[in-house]
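[09:14] KT: can someone run the structure on this one? pasting the chain below
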Amino acid sequence: MDGADLLHVVEKIHRERDVDKESIFQSIEQALASALRKADNISDRSAFKIDRKTGQIKAVNENGEELPDPISPDSLGRIAAQTAKQVLIQKIREAERNVIFEEFERHKHHIVHGTVHRYEGNNVILSLSKTEGLLPKKEQVRDETYTLGSHLRAYILNVEKRGHKVLILLSRTHPDFIRRLFELEVPEIADRIIEIKNLVREPGYRTKMAVASFDAKVDCVGACVGVRGSRIKNIIEELQGEKIDIIRWSENAEDLLRNALKPAEIQEIKLDLEQRKAAVYVLTDQLSLAIGKRGQNVRLAARLCGWDIDIISISQSGEAPQIFHASSERTPEEKQRLTTNPLDSLFGNTDKDNSPTASHNKEEELSQEEELSDEEESSEKNMEIPEEDLESDEEYENPDDETEDDEESEEDDD
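[09:31] RB: done, structure tokens below
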């Protein structure tokens, strides 16, 4: 391969895989260095350097000086050539993983668009252009259905390097998923004219969100709802029918509680400032509205306002009052989000690739090993990298160990 061809290969990998050119040049140099160590009668301190402008490969000593007796890469032999090929594939894959990690790390805690690619058990795997994202069962909204090939939006909960993979954990149950959807649909929120003061959610059922406006001319609730409900309608469709209550924020605790408990009509509110408890009195016919279906309305209102709420009925016929209590404390699921790494809770704290895609990846690695063994004979003549090799997750192994593995497999077959 002459210098022009080498530069063409580097440019192609850079363009198609978005890997920095300097990283590719360094990977090739490291691959050739590994080949040198495999070759006989060549000093371990010798190395190859590539001219970044011409693509010419030169053999140099430990001081970077060109050797008086040039060493050609073509003279390194079959095993050395195979070693160089495997190391180069591995280094380029590592560089590509770094690019993917850095890209999604920048978009962490934001919304990503994907396509439902496949199911693995109860987990949904989304195709995210260059890689895949994992939507585990616990981050899926109850009763939501995901059809293969359908487009889906999700919240990037975490991004980590685990083993030889970049794991992208997605969520559709996180409260900030709603927050980001409103930022996309309501320009006033993205422009910081309207602020989401607090947001609480029971995924798949109901969300309560308190908003405030920094501009007296802008109605914060109306802007979030949109003309004839156009803005909030798009969000509800994305959430497949989840109800959303938008209330006006107030620094006055009593006004905030009244807004949060709508549509119920409140007769009186008594506040215990030290205990942050509120006794809310409603007429008997308003009790069910204040409590809500399965207690959702008062439960979400308590968490939204940060007050423990007691709903107390007032009977005009002299009946004993009914009391319903709702705590402002976070749910166990919310506490777990704040105290644990979501990937650790799924796979455990380990460097091994224990993700749901592990078995799928192992099958790919086995098939790639078979392909590489078939190509071994021609690797001395052609050092170009097949496209499928870059897609696999096979790591570099010493070619000298392959014969031992082959012998063991033959014994097993016998």
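[09:33] KT: thanks! The radius of gyration is 31 Å.
[09:34] RB: yep, looked fine to me
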